[in-house]
Design brief:
Elements: H1 7-12, E1 13-18, E2 22-27, E3 34-39, H2 52-73, E4 77-81, E5 92-97, H3 119-132
Antiparallel strand pairs: 1-2, 2-3, 3-5, 4-5
Length: 135
């Protein structure tokens, strides 16, 4: 069976790359650098649905994306979360936050209006991310 991305993630995000375990997505909201890791494992809803080995790989990917966020964007804080109340498919948000962002210090969920990237800006951001993760 091939991996299927949840329809909501597919609608809200742009694919950046496939890592060892996860698909890396960019949330289409230019207000903050918002990346999402989705393990390519069918029916995974919780971290515990992954084997211990897969959990270690996922943690390595979270660390990689956190370092990329810090290197490229120098955020004041990185928010990392696996909530899944709206999208059941296991996915990890890695969001660069700034004291100057529109909703700081509140959470982005339910507070941050979507402001999609402009086409050229989107292509540039995806290329920048791919280069930073050496793809």
């Amino acid at each position: 069976m091939s991996f299927l991305l949840d329809a909501r993630l597919d609608a809200d995000c742009i694919e950046v790359a496939d890592l060892e375990l996860s698909r890396l997505l960019l949330m289409n909201n230019r207000n903050v650098p918002w990346l999402i890791l989705v393990p390519r494992k069918d029916n995974a809803a919780e971290l515990t649905d992954l084997t211990l080995s897969e959990q270690h790989v996922l943690l390595d990917e979270i660390n990689l994306i956190t370092r990329v966020q810090q290197k490229l964007f120098s955020p004041d804080k990185i928010n990392t979360a696996a909530i899944g109340n709206m999208v059941r498919q296991l996915h990890i948000h890695v969001i660069g936050r700034f004291k100057s962002d529109p909703v700081w210090p509140a959470p982005v969920w339910g507070n941050l209006a979507a402001e999609p990237y402009h086409e050229g800006e989107l292509l540039q951001r995806v290329q920048l991310l791919r280069h930073a993760i050496c793809i």
